Amino acid sequence: MDVDSSINKVCLILPEEAEEMELVVFHRLDNIVNEAPASFAQARIWLDERIRFDPDKPQIAIYNMPFVYRLQPDHTLSTKQLHHALHLTVNKHLSLHTSLHFDIDKNLLMQRVTTHDHKNNNNMFSIIETTYETDEQLNKILHDEIRNPHLFDLDQGLIFRCHLVYHKRISSNDLLSDKDVVIFNFHHAQ
After folding, report:
1. What is the fold of 33-53+64-187?
2. b/e sequence 7-17, b meaning 16+ C-beta within 10 Å
3. What's the domain of life for this entry (predicted)?
4. Contact (CB, 8 A) for 183 and 83
5. Closest-CA residue to 125 (of 175, 171, 177, 186)
6. I need a labelling partner for 78 at 20 to 30 A (CA). Which of 10, 102, 107, 188 fits?
């Protein structure tokens, strides 16, 4: 009996569970409204960005919330599996694809859940791939994630992005290594 059972080789889903999972389909109920007034916190942030900064020439972002991760030594992560997991997460959590817009007729800031009918599902979030060779280059990338005001579009519901930062070169085998960095960045309005 081979005792080598690294976590990568262990499957936690039984075959009969996998078949059952394929039969389960989640969908929103028809009576759920896709649009509602924005919360006071959303309205405050939305208004604050427009009062403090010229929307046509924003200079610095104050509501970007990046979370930076690096794998443990000798570990890898499939970028295809990461993309699939992010896709499932964004689809499940409506706040990750909710837009903010000002309704002139109601004189009210509204939030709207952007559904598959409204846009291409692939555009509900973005995954960007770049490379770095030095710590200075990595710090510049991290600074851009924090301060760049053009990363998100609240009007379109684009409030989440994933930035894969590869050390020296983009992986040809779709794997992240321990020298690569993953940045999950959110806009604070959601």
Report:
1. Chloramphenicol Acetyltransferase (3.30.559)
2. eeeeeeeeeee
3. Eukaryota
4. no
5. 186
6. 188
